[in-house]
Design a protein that fits this description.
Layout: E1 4-13, E2 16-26, E3 31-35, H1 42-50, E4 57-62, E5 65-66, E6 77-80, H2 92-102, H3 107-121, H4 136-148, E7 154-158, H5 166-183, E8 186-191, H6 194-200, E9 203-208, E10 211-216, H7 218-223, H8 228-233, E11 240-249, E12 252-256, E13 261-263, E14 278-283, E15 288-290, E16 296-305, E17 309-316, E18 319-326, E19 336-341, E20 347-350
Parallel strand pairs: 3-8, 3-9, 6-7, 7-8
Antiparallel strand pairs: 1-2, 1-4, 4-5, 9-10, 11-12, 11-14, 12-13, 14-20, 15-19, 16-17, 16-19, 17-18
Length: 357
């Protein structure tokens, strides 16, 4: 395993600056997820680490060696694509060992590596089958196995589960997490799926427009988002937002708009709050409680049945507010529902810069 260090990276494709002055450190043995919407540059960054894209400026180090201009085969990496890219005429064993055979690896070593990967990925009964006789999940396991047998320093995954159904994605997510623990290898994984990111990552880099917005553990990114984009990108349903202003009176700080007012004096402001500052108050649906004596109220417009809980959508003065209802029957449609915000779990962002206050 090896660390990956990216310094002041610039990537230009078709005359467009896709990534500009990006810095990223991945520690040896770490599982890092690049998360963001389509077109944010995450796959471009991954392919550049792999050596498939040219660098306009900056550097890429793998294992302490400058690999900015090294050929892909010399970088000590294995790449798993979204498409399985298996050879249809070869069985599973030959698909997994193809790269090793081309490189002249001794037969005994090939057998050892294929056996090890097959054991890890539960592919032993399938070694003599061809891709046409495999399910989508099995094909992706083979593609991952083909990467594992290379025993690379760094494993790169480009949305490998996006072609699978929800059940298979869940199963393979769990297997990838276990695989990382077994191998202890450095892994960088690209996805637009926040569930994949939250469950797989040791650290995650949330990207937007070629820029890393926040790089931290999943828990910190979720509970302490650095800006409004990160706050709204993570979470399902998304974070509820209310616009207003701060009022500072000595040690007291209030957030207020025409429909609500909250004491936010205990909020951990990064800088001293300014009276009159326009800001956005955010609260996640799980921190909105529907209770009889709530200080606020909205008209119930929709109930989403989620099995072990309900998601209530309330019309609050023209804005939609989502809240989670656990272990209770949902109110009738169009009912007026009182609710309360957990003031200990509020988030505040500057309205102009959208950065966390």
């Amino acid at each position: 395993m090896a660390n990956v260090a990216i310094r002041n990276l610039q990537i230009t494709l078709g005359g467009n600056r896709v990534i500009d002055q990006l810095n990223l450190d991945v520690q040896a043995g770490e599982f890092v997820v690049l998360l963001g919407p389509s077109g944010c540059g995450k796959s471009t960054l991954l392919h550049t680490i792999a050596g498939l894209n040219d660098v306009s400026d900056g550097s890429i180090e793998i294992g302490g060696r400058d690999m900015t201009w090294a050929d892909p085969k010399d970088r000590g990496i294995s790449l798993v694509f979204q498409s399985y890219a298996l050879y249809p005429t070869m069985d599973v064993e030959k698909n997994m060992s193809f790269g090793l055979r081309i490189n002249g690896t001794p037969k005994a070593e090939i057998a050892r590596r294929v056996q090890r990967a097959a054991d890890m990925l539960h592919l032993q009964p399938l070694l003599k089958r061809k891709p046409a006789n495999l399910s989508g999940g099995q094909r992706q396991r083979v593609a991952i196995g083909r990467a594992i047998v290379r025993e690379a320093d760094v494993f790169l995954f480009d949305e490998p589960l996006s072609n699978l159904d929800a059940k298979l994605r869940t199963e393979l997510r769990r297997e990838l997490k276990q695989l990382h623990r077994q191998l202890g290898a450095t892994m960088i994984y690209v996805t637009h799926d926040q569930v994949e990111a939250m469950t797989l990552a040791g650290r995650m880099a949330v990207m937007r427009g070629g820029v890393i917005q926040q790089y931290d553990t999943p828990a910190n990114v979720y509970h302490t988002p650095a800006n409004l984009f990160v706050a709204t990108f993570l979470g399902s349903p998304g974070m509820n937002l209310f616009r207003g202003r701060l009022a500072v009176h000595g040690a007291s700080v209030m957030f207020a708009n025409e429909h609500m007012q909250f004491d936010v004096s205990a909020y951990p402001f990064a800088d001293a709050p300014v009276s009159g500052q326009a800001c956005v108050l955010g609260v996640r649906p799980e921190d909105v409680s529907a209770i009889n004596d709530g200080a606020l109220a909205g008209r119930l417009t929709l109930v989403e049945e989620m099995g072990n809980h309900h998601v209530l959508w309330l019309d609050f003065h023209g804005s939609q507010v989502a809240c989670i209802l656990n272990g209770q029957d949902a109110p009738a449609a169009e009912a007026t529902v009182a609710f309360r915000l957990n003031t200990e779990r509020l988030h505040l962002f500057d309205e102009a810069s959208e950065q966390r206050l």
